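Reviewers asked in the last cycle whether our approach scales beyond single polypeptides. To address this, we selected a multi-component target totalling 520 residues and predicted its structure end to end. The input consisted of the following lines:
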Amino acid sequence: MRYAGRIRTAVIIVAFGLLELLCRTGVISGFTMIPPSTIAGSLIEILLSGRFSADIMVTLRNVSVAILAAMLIGPLLAIILHQVPGLRRILDPLFATYYAIPVYAFYPLLMVIFGLGDLPQIAVGFLLAIVAVLINTLNGLDRVPPVLLKVARMHRLGPVATAVKVRLPFAAPYIFTGFKLCVAYSFVGVIGAEFITSSRGIGYEISYAYNNFDNRVMYPLIFLILTIATVINMSLYAWERKLLARRSSVS
Amino acid sequence: MTAAPAAGAHASLRDVTRIYPPRAGRPALHALGPVSLDLARGEFFAVVGPSGCGKSTLLDVMAGLVAPSAGTVTFEGKPVYAQVPDGIGVVFQEDASFPWLTVYDNIAFGLRQEGRTANEVRASTEFAIDFMGLKEFASAYPAQLSGGMRQRVCIARTLVLKPRLILLDEPFGALDQQTRLLMGDELLRLWRETGATILLITHAIDEAAMLADRVGIMSARPGTFMDVVSTDWPRERDSTIVSDPAFGLLTSRIWTLLRAESLRSMGHK
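The resulting structure, written as structure tokens, was:
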């Protein structure tokens, strides 16, 4: 492990140790927080009992659908917008201010459109995620060196083949940044929407436990989300590093 | 009406001009011409000229990457217009290797694009890798190579398709002098062994004089040919000819023709 990694691990261990100590000595009240060891124990118990398995599966499925939809539709829309500069100029102000718009404000409208099922939650996750993919993909496409497009023409590639074989591969590191944000925004969108109006899912169960002062459920579920999001992001980060290593000079 | 290309010419330009239309508040730019040129099959022709004289535009027009504003371009008797015809390969000045592909996959790119069989792709790619001395680097990515090696990858990617006309746009412009001389030797070897016609755009007089059978000297923008000088070098030649007294006379003659135009392009009267 590198020096930075050792420091990072030490900071996490110390922080958890301190929290454990403060909880165990009563400095932090049991109504506010439970010790990390109890959180871990409760989480194992929850997972083994299968008590929230259905909720966990629903949330993970909805987040996955939002992620996949954003990852597929985002680059496709970016390619179209890149090819139609007039349309892009019209939509640019929307992209620039997109994250200033609270997507949750549209939740009632999404319920009217998609009904009471899982679709409104998926829609919120998707709406938060797609623009991150779109903007980053456009950024990557803007940076394709003209000489590579000349090479594509030399090989008589049509517009679709040029997009698939030259533009998108070149833009891959930028698209990957979009994908990382997409994963984070999808989690935020779906779980946040479950908090508002839902009768199942991890977000709903956290909200239910919070309203009933049930810290032995609320904290383990929060910890579970944190773990899942961290594992996914660390995997993407490792993949991204591998991808970028090919493009950086060894000298 | 434009005159017909010379009989037997492999590639021809006839009264070609290229005017870039006004854009973003900038006026129209007359970049090239009118120029006429006939390249004989198997000839090595170099073009030198002041910066911004339209050399690269000439190459783009001949390759079919850019449409001429007037005049005609023909390759093997067929018109070329805004589309690169089969049989023409281009090597650019900038690094045009695909950074996401290995050396092998970069070189095999065009063959796969043409739908060749896996065996054909392997055989041709391995030959090109060997020919360009890239065997040790077949699985490396371009970022792990020097500028000269990357340019070899680009040349191999073009060469593997067996083009009958190779257009090179200042391919060694970013390389140091020693590497340029050695790459020049490799280019001469490639030219002899493939029998391809070569059009080389360069800003280096010595490079043009060393490599080419004929050197076209262009005026300042809009570029036209002021003169075409025959080098009379034997086909079997390499970079050692730079020590030949005739080489000095040749470069001196080209420079004399070019000096006034270069000063003009820099704003001197």
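Residues 50-247 of chain A form a domain with the MetI-like fold fold (CATH 1.10.3720.10). We regard this as preliminary and will revisit it once experimental data from Aim 1 are available.
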